[in-house]
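Entry 14. Structure prediction run on the chain below.
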Amino acid sequence: MARTKKIAAVESAPSKSKVTAGRTGGMLEAFARTADEVAATTKKLEKARLLGAYFHTLSDDDLVRAARYFAGHQFALNDARTTNVGGGMLRDAIGEVTGLEVENLRPRYVRLGDSGEVAFEAFDETGRGKVVKPTFTLAETESLIERLSGTRGTKNKREVLVEALRRAAPLEAKYLVKLLIGDLRIGLQEGLVEDSIARAFERPLAQVARVNMLAGDVGEAALCARRDELAGVSMRLFHPIKFMLATAAADLADVARTMPAEFFVEDKFDGIRGQAHVGQGRVALFTRTLDEVTHRFPELPAPLKHLSTDAILDGEILPARGAQILPFAELQKRLGRKTVSDELLAEVPVVFVAYDLLYADGRVMFDEPLAERRRVLESLIAKADEKAAEKNAGTLRLSAAKRVGDANELDAEFDAARSRGNEGLMIKDPRSSYKPGKRGREWLKLKRALATLDVVVTSVEVGHGKRRNLLSDYTFAVRRAAEDAELLNVGKAYSGLTDAELAELTDWFRAHTLQEFAHGRVRVVEPKIVLEVTFDRVQESKRHRSGYALRFPRILRRRDDKSVEEIDTLDAVRRLAEGNDEV
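Output returned:
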């Protein structure tokens, strides 16, 4: 957020009258045509120009809606509602409206790889474009999303979907489906939407990004930019803020080259990254995927309420009994549950270990150096410990941050961290600011020597023996690149998950199947389930389009705390194949 100069508009944005001459901005069709134009170019400046021109055609209310939708949000981040509409439900609704059988639609999902594109093709082929004219507005789109979020039951939701899609022309159907999935797939990320807003209204990008972060709503940031009201927005609690990320250090020499003369060293915990918002007598916990998980950890709000001020803490949710950190597998028993029984609370107790501070006592601390953030955090935790009841003692903890001046000391620190049940080390520059959503070299991580990859499941098969009724054999993929979302398969794993986990995933995969083969024994599925896998080595292979295959892969765990955007890339696989064991 260091960029503070005003951004000049890309070329010259068309005047409002010129743009609206052939297009009514508040119609979903206009949004869709702009989205198609954005998808058709790989040039970021051209994408920004197209968005900026479109933003100028919109009313204030529609500007807010469009900015959210282009950023991939159905609602503002400060609004916890979801539509809970899956691919299977959409496929059934498309089939009912178009008259096409599921067997006709499934191959299209495999060929096109996008539910919205399938909807467009199905609506176009069945002639709906000739009999249905575009009538949807952005306001009606918002009403549909809100209605779906408030509708309970698969049958009832499908009825709402069918009712809406019967009104839709092919292009409208394409983007209604994309918006309900929550993924436009037009080569647009939230940062580029922020950049487009800044250029369109000639405001500093740093201010636009900051307001989006503080308010948790890119739509509000767009409106404030139009009205020149960016400076008046303050921090609002209870919406997730993107986490700052670390980069893997190649070796100790890499640490010595990167860090200043003295740096912080902490244990790298093997838990769930957690962000705690505390204020107004309320506590909310968010994960790296920006989901709220407060209900899964009912023992954590009480000690966090002992903080002496409103605050946002960055830390880790860990399974622990006293000083002993429990294996991550124990924590998995509590994930994905709507309610946590008293028995499970006793069996798998958790703690919140805080290691950074984003906001406290009305003070936004992102731009403060880490050393100062730690100083304030240590004071907050110490005061909370004094106030805490004995039964909560130790549930809220502060990470131990040691100042080290010689990278050669890290071998001993690493061994000590592992002996405490943790993954390895975090090495942090005391001068570093907090950069939400960014991965830089101001924070480095040293993990276990065992090579691992984060991957996403692309297809599943029925198992054998006692698992013959479960979908237990998973083919998985990495991204082609950080900026390229194409998925490339690199292996297939059969082991590592419990039967209970496989049963839960089997239900999920059946509900999110894109295509079936061999009477349902093999299924291409929506790529949403992230796994951490380990393996003996990486070898070149013609079996997969990636050009590589993992030898003897094994599943270490599900990574519900990670999104598909965060899985490893082909470059990480390539480096492992070349003999570099650090991912």
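The longest strand covers residues 311-321.
Filed with the rest of this week's runs.
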